[in-house]
Amino acid sequence: MSLPHKNEEYGTEVYWDKRYEQEAEDASFDWFKTYADVANDIRKLIPSKAARILMLGCGNSKFSEDMWEDGYKNIVNVDYSPVVIEKMRNRHKDIRPEMTWEVNDVRTLDGLDTSSFDVAIDKGTMDAMMTSSTDVWDPSEQVIKDCTAEVSQVLRVLRRNGIFIYITFGQPHFRRRYLTGAHVTRNTSLEINQLGESFHYYMYTLRML
């Protein structure tokens, strides 16, 4: 795995394309938590295995694969790296044909219809966009713009009663601003759950009302 020279490279398409080009065809990497770590929480939040799910910034994570094995077949995976999308499409097209893989930017979600998904999941993607700012207390205008754009687009594509699940190590006083505020133009409720016993992660659930 090729690590960046600077943390802010995590937020660039150039870094990810280069990294995925260098990695083996069967390589995988999961940020923060695996599906097994949060499966019980996911099953409670998504009781219907027929739910249409959008995986934001999927990378080469096994999270979608493991959800598929758990019965969630209707998953649309998006990432702005055409390199990883092509690799993942080839990896899964024969054995998990129901899953689809699309090149798309979470800040725009071009081509995805309004009110077309029941669930959207972000596990580390928004965090990668935050690496361009060195001050978590005072993030740059670009970080705020990128993160609020993602949330706005997610809310656009979610159906009524849909949910946005965001898994991160970011504490509420750093992350809440991106999940609430003027850019959230639809009625929502926010639930925050702490994961883990030593090093804490957080699961934010933004529910459409």
Succession of helices and strands: HHEHEHEEHHEHEE
State the secondary-structure class: alpha/beta
For the biggest sheet, the summary is:
7 strands, mixed
C-alpha Rg (nearest Å): 16 Å
Q: Overall mean pLDDT score?
A: 90
Q: Helix amount, in percent? A: 25-40%
Q: Which oligomerization state do the chains in this entry correspond to?
A: single chain
Provide the spatial order of strands within the biggest beta sheet: 3-2-1-4-5-7-6
What is the beta-strand fraction?
A: 15-25%
Q: Which outline best applies?
A: globular
Total strand segments: 7
Distinct helical segment count: 7
Distance between the termini: 41 Å
Indicate the low-confidence ranges by residue numbers. Answer: none
What is the fold's blueprint, element by element?
Elements: H1 13-22, H2 35-45, E1 53-56, H3 63-69, E2 75-79, H4 82-92, E3 100-103, E4 117-123, H5 125-129, H6 141-157, E5 158-168, H7 172-179, E6 188-195, E7 201-208
Parallel strand pairs: 1-2, 1-4, 2-3, 4-5
Antiparallel strand pairs: 5-7, 6-7
